[in-house]
C-alpha cells in the first residue's frame, strides 16, 4: 500500500515540474533539420551540374575492377545455369542419355564443341579461383596494389589452363554418325 501511495505522489510531483508548457517554452533547436540539409545538398548539386550518380565510364578501368565485375557476373550466371539445368531435368521429357544422343546426332564441328566446352568450364574455373583469392584476402594477405594485379593474372591463367587442357586432350570428333545418316537417306532428301 505504501508503495502505491509513494508511486502516486511521485508521479504527481513529476507532472508538476515537467509540464508540457515548460518543456516547449525552454526548447531550443540544436541545428538544422534534415529537410533543410537535404534541400541545401540538392541545390548545391543542381547548381554545379553534378549527375545524380557518377556513371561507371568516369572511372579508368583496371584489372581488379574488371575482375570484380566478372566475379559477380559469373556467380549470377552459374546460379542461373544450375537452376535452369535442374528445372529442365524436371520438366523436359526424356533422360540424360537421350539428350546426349540428340547433341551427338547434330554432328557439330570440333570448333563449336571446344568453344561450348570453354564457355561452360571457364566461368566455373574463374569463379572458383577468384573465390579462393577472396578467401586469401579475408586472411588479410595480398591486399597491396601490385599483389592485386599479380593474383589477378594468376587467377586468369589458372582459369584458362583447364579449359585449354580439355580442348587439347579431347579425343577427335569423328563424323561416323553423320556418314551413317547420309548413307541411309534417299537421294532426294540430301
Automatic annotation (TrEMBL):
This protein's record includes keyword RNA-binding: no
Gene Ontology terms, MF aspect: electron transfer activity; metal ion binding
GO biological process: tricarboxylic acid cycle
The organism's place on the tree of life at top rank: Eukaryota
Cofactor: heme b
Chief subcellular location: mitochondrion
Pfam families, per database record: Sdh_cyt
Cellular component GO terms held in the UniProt record: mitochondrial inner membrane
Membrane topology: Multi-pass membrane protein
Alphabetically ordered keywords of this record: Electron transport, Heme, Iron, Membrane, Metal-binding, Mitochondrion, Mitochondrion inner membrane, Transit peptide, Transmembrane, Transmembrane helix, Transport, Tricarboxylic acid cycle
InterPro entries with a match to the protein in the record: SQR/QFR_C/D, Succ_DH_cyt_bsu_CS, Succ_DH_cytb556, SuccDH_FuR_B_TM-su
Subcellular location per the Swiss-Prot or TrEMBL entry: Mitochondrion inner membrane
CDD domains for this protein: SQR_TypeC_SdhC (cd03499)
Recorded metabolic or biological pathway in which this protein acts: Carbohydrate metabolism; tricarboxylic acid cycle
NCBIfam families: succ_dehyd_cytB
Subunit and interaction comment: Component of complex II composed of four subunits: the flavoprotein (FP) SDHA, iron-sulfur protein (IP) SDHB, and a cytochrome b560 composed of SDHC and SDHD.
Family named by the database record: Belongs to the cytochrome b560 family.
Function, in words: Membrane-anchoring subunit of succinate dehydrogenase (SDH) that is involved in complex II of the mitochondrial electron transport chain and is responsible for transferring electrons from succinate to ubiquinone (coenzyme Q). SDH also oxidizes malate to the non-canonical enol form of oxaloacetate, enol-oxaloacetate. Enol-oxaloacetate, which is a potent inhibitor of the succinate dehydrogenase activity, is further isomerized into keto-oxaloacetate.
Protein name listed in UniProt: Succinate dehydrogenase cytochrome b560 subunit, mitochondrial
Chain's gene name: SDHC
